[in-house]
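Exercise 7. Predict the joint structure of the components listed below.
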Amino acid sequence: MRKRTIPPAIRMTSGSELAIALRVTYLAFHRRSDAAFAPLGVTADQFVFLATLSSGRTLTQRELARRMLSDPSTVRAILVLLDRRGLVERDAHPTDARKRTVALTAEGRRTLRRLWEVGEPIRAQMLQALQPDEAREIVALLTRVAQSLTPQAIPVGGPPISPEDEE
Amino acid sequence: MRKRTIPPAIRMTSGSELAIALRVTYLAFHRRSDAAFAPLGVTADQFVFLATLSSGRTLTQRELARRMLSDPSTVRAILVLLDRRGLVERDAHPTDARKRTVALTAEGRRTLRRLWEVGEPIRAQMLQALQPDEAREIVALLTRVAQSLTPQAIPVGGPPISPEDEE
DNA sequence: TATTGTTATACTCTATAACTATA
DNA sequence: TATAGTTATAGAGTATAACAATA
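Solution:
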């Protein structure tokens, strides 16, 4: 493999290159995921909801909305769909009658397990394109970029529990 | 700065970490862009259409659909919106009466210039979170991941001209 | 008064299927 | 027959504003 004739330090990366790469990559991933999940009647976005609900303690809709960086009415719309499919259950909150708790049903958990399975090849394919240290690197860099865009510094959604806000 | 006690080589990066980082970062960027473009009455997705139309030669709707990795009817829906706003023009193809060419209007070009301007701070903010070599690195890694997901190997949308398919 | 969730409404993006016109 | 584009239709995600119930 020959050395490039232009030293890499000279070639500046523009913001739009990063924007395009980010967009193309995410969209490719999102579409592949949607296609893989479709036979199970679930979208990629809905999968993220289910995965979020499965990790950690029971959430209220409001907490879910904050966690998803979405509007409460958006969250409700998606929950209604998942409810209709019997994948989540919304119950009265034990101590605050305004709130509703959201939890996976047994079928929701079963479906989620299948979703993790059918999504695995896609994630594996992405990882195979990278060396282990490159995979660490891209996650670290993406995380830095995400934080630079959200000054409120929401940690990049680690799976299970985390010291919860209040309540 | 102290060394980590766990050598980084031991900690494997999982596919879901990459998936989450990709999603969170893209969504943050997309939402920020939408908010910045909203006063101009254009969405982030529409901006990508306009930018694609501005670079290189005139396209037909079909070519645009392939370029955007979208369905022709999706492309049409967006073009109708842009047409209504007076930002694009769809004319009869000179030699093939089935086709329609799509091009920016003068106002489309003016609006696109403004969109580049109002989007610049967001792209700059992303870049500031990275060293120049890191910016190159993340673009390269994202591109590799994107290509691993799209076996048809569509090059990651470089701006202007490229040796076009056929026609 | 502030908060949680719902309702009504609307817009964008997405895609499928049936169709027309042209090549 | 195959291709370019349209139409009709539908569903998913998004958000705003007005509202009811509760804290």
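Discussion. Residues 15-37 of chain B form the longest helix (23 residues).
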